[in-house]
Specification:
By secondary structure, the chain is α+β, with helices and mostly antiparallel strands. It is built from 16 helices and seven strands. Helix 5 packs across helix 13 and helix 14 packs antiparallel against helix 15. The protein is flat, with a radius of gyration of 30 Å.
Length: 389
């Protein structure tokens, strides 16, 4: 267990926490697999650790040099060369891609040529593809790296039929927010209809139901998407505007409507993730250069910092990391709490009666005998043996 210190001035404790994180999860070995290694001079892990420490010290290299607190044995040029390195990739939780324009008039700065087989070249090729195609490529790379998932969750920006059909072909079910558009149609009762037509043609559930409508459809067309897949559409009320509605599509026909809504709710975690990265880890504000490789390195370092925070929070606050011992502990704690309460009750109640009503011992005993006799049998058995009944 380790804690990321909250005091920005405690440099040594911050460094020790990050070092334990790197050692525990073998970050160095993972970075080597991404071709992150030194060619000469300062060790790679020293620069990597220094940049992570800066995130939690809330003090940039510029401010350290300005205040005279910079004590590292490498120069500013070494620091920026590390961020600009085009021959290395950076360790990240799953994967990400910074999209860029393929039009020359929209490109700022000098355009360098890279070997298309290198990591830098592949990153640039991916950055200039459509975002919906990049999503499929990122899923492929995550699966090849050994990651497993039951569902792919995404919002309406990605929920075109093609993006719903393709993950299904890879063995992954999709739960997505349906794009409310008249241009996207689904096969419903043998006809092609858009989501508005489907919603208006069906009877809605009344009362306090968690959803308004649930219907089976087929998503995709043979000409555009190769084939179609079975899916279910669940319509729910919009929390912001109760007169409005939202629609979810799921390709797992065995899921209940309540489970579809619950699982899709997990997608909100990514919104919290981005908010945390922007507000606390300086995503997009710490580096303002035009180098695509430097921006990629900046985002990767921010994401690594978020990983460190998540692991620290889980180890420090979440008792579920104890495994099965957690459940035994919780059950035992509940029994102890009940037992202690039943021991306190026979002592606290007579004392209050004696103080407030000035009752005699005989009156108090009569009251307690009557009170205990009215308790359920299991509560009477939980009282101390010397308590009057």
């Amino acid at each position: 267990m380790f804690i990321v210190p909250s005091e920005a001035g405690n440099k040594q404790e911050i460094s020790n926490s990050i070092s334990r994180f790197i050692h525990a999860f073998k970050v160095g070995s993972l970075l080597k697999k991404c071709n992150c290694k030194k060619e000469k001079g300062i060790p790679f892990m020293k620069l990597f650790t220094y940049i992570l420490c800066n995130v939690f010290r809330d003090r940039s290299m510029y401010m350290q040099k300005k205040t005279g607190s910079f004590r590292e044995d490498f120069s500013r040029n070494t620091y920026y060369r590390f961020l600009r390195s085009a021959r290395s990739n950076s360790f990240i939780p799953i994967n990400f891609s910074l999209l860029a324009s393929s039009k020359e008039e929209n490109i700022l700065g000098e355009v360098k040529s890279y070997d298309r087989r290198s990591l830098a070249g592949k990153r640039r090729i991916m950055a200039q593809r459509k975002g919906t195609d990049v999503m499929i490529q990122l899923i492929d790379e995550a699966m090849k790296a050994g990651h497993k998932a039951g569902y792919v969750l995404f919002d309406s920006w990605f929920s075109n039929p093609h993006q719903i059909v393709e993950p299904k072909d890879k063995g992954l079910d999709t739960i997505a927010m349906v794009k409310i558009s008249s241009r996207i149609s689904y096969e419903f009762n043998g006809e092609r209809r858009n989501i508005k037509q489907i919603y208006n043609s069906c009877k809605k559930r009344r009362g306090r139901s968690r959803y308004l409508l649930s219907v089976p459809v087929r998503v995709g067309q043979d000409k555009k998407d190769g084939h179609s897949v079975d899916a279910g559409i669940v319509c729910v009320r919009n929390r912001i505007n109760r007169k409005d509605w939202l629609a979810l599509v799921c390709t797992d026909m065995s899921l209940r409507e309540e489970d579809i809504i619950r699982i899709y709710g997990k997608r909100w975690d990514i919104e919290v993730f981005f908010k945390t990265c922007k507000s606390f880890l300086n995503l997009g504000s710490e580096y303002h250069g035009l180098s695509y490789d430097a921006l990629t390195a900046h985002v990767a370092l921010v994401f690594t910092g978020y990983m460190l925070m998540s692991v620290a929070k889980r180890d420090d606050e979440d008792e579920r990391t104890l495994g099965e011992l957690f459940y035994f502990m919780v059950d035992e704690a509940a029994d102890i709490t009940f037992s202690q309460s039943m021991k306190i009750l026979p002592d606290a109640m007579p004392a209050s009666i004696r103080t407030v009503f000035q009752a005699s011992e005989e009156q108090i005993n009569t009251f307690m005998n009557d009170f205990i006799s009215r308790l359920p049998e299991y509560m009477q058995k939980s009282l101390p043996a010397d308590t009057a009944a």
